[in-house]
Inverse folding.
């Protein structure tokens, strides 16, 4: 099981902040493909991966990163702090 | 080093006084305060964050600043939640023996907080709401800190 978190407009498009999933995805990109295949709202949120960032266990990562051993995946737009 | 991520408002003047107090070996204290800007029609700003990762990311940025410059201390305060135009969003303070290190470290902290700390700003105006888009310039600003 893996926790998947969504922030900002990704959260709004998908319609929830967090869910727990059973997945056999080997990489972040595989997980995205699984989600996109589920429902249109996921396809809408993940339409342009260049507009998204991903964190694995709260560290910035990349879409080709492996998911082995990861407990928490977060998807969000580029950050706008400061 | 002190780091606070909070919903509550803070007083930048009081924070600066507390930060600088009794620090006789610091020849320089630099502060930056980010403020909610109203370009016309802004009702409020809402900042979302990623609890846990936010603190972890900012602490890593502060560690990096401390490793790169001769700092005696640094402070980061960043708010989340709703805030009105004119309210302080966040604050950075650095203390160093000399001003070069204090200025550079403060600017480094700001550049990294803008695009590497997980905060997202949403502007709520009379005519609608919109997530603030990240600027290419903010990303470009990081490249000047690349180690040679």
């Amino acid at each position: 099981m893996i926790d998947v978190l969504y922030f900002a407009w990704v959260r709004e498009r998908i319609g929830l902040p967090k869910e727990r999933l059973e997945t056999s995805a080997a990489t972040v990109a595989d997980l995205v493909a699984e989600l996109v295949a589920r429902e249109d709202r996921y396809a809408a949120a993940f339409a342009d991966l260049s507009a998204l960032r991903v964190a694995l266990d709260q560290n910035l990562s990349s879409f080709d990163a492996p998911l082995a051993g990861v407990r928490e995946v977060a998807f969000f737009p580029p950050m706008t702090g400061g | 080093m002190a780091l606070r991520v909070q919903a509550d408002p803070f007083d930048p003047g009081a924070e600066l006084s507390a930060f600088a107090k009794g620090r006789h070996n610091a020849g320089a204290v630099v502060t930056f305060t980010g403020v909610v800007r109203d370009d016309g029609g802004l009702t409020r700003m809402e900042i979302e964050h990623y609890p846990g990762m936010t603190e972890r990311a900012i602490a890593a940025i502060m560690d990096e600043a401390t490793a790169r410059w001769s700092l005696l201390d640094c402070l980061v305060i960043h708010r989340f939640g709703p805030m009105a135009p004119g309210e302080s969003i966040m604050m950075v303070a650095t203390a160093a023996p000399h001003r070069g290190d204090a200025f550079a470290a403060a600017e480094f902290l700001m550049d990294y907080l803008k695009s590497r700390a997980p905060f997202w700003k949403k502007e709520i105006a009379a005519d609608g709401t919109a997530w603030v888009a990240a600027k290419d310039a903010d990303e470009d600003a990081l490249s000047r800190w690349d180690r040679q």
